[in-house]
Amino acid sequence: QAQLQESGPGLVKPSRTLSLICTDFAVTITTNYYFWSWIRQPPGKGLEFIAYITSNGTTYYSPSLKSRTSIWRDTSKDQFTLHLFAVTLEDTAVYYCARLGLDTITTMTLDQTRDSWGPGLQVTVSS
User: Fold this and answer.
1) Of 71, 69, 62, 72, which is closest to residue 87 (Cα–Cα)?
2) pLDDT digits 0-9 by tens, 27-62
3) Of 52, 115, 120, 122, which has the fewest beta carbons less than 10 angstroms from its beta carbon?
4) Which of 20, 120, 107, 112 is CA-nearest to residue 71?
């Protein structure tokens, strides 16, 4: 079983809100020095960082998505959730959750062979 697992809808209509949940099965999300993150990869493009939340609830959002994004957590379930509002066709992507380390966050060098990533969830925005 993967250490992290994404869940949510595979199909969302334009202008709706996309809500995704990630469960960390291996590490309690109040553990220091980790950044629980959401990342996506649109078709034919590279990985795009979306947001993270830390062990004490501090959040950070990519400037390009900040106005449409919210991340929060449920510490009782070791889950963190992404809300992406007013989705468009351009939000179609594979969405990953990941437990990133400080080195990755500092350099923003996203590499699925490093840190711990979920298997990814295909989300398609279509009417």
Assistant:
1) 69
2) 999 999 999 999 999 999 999 999 999 999 999 999
3) 122
4) 20
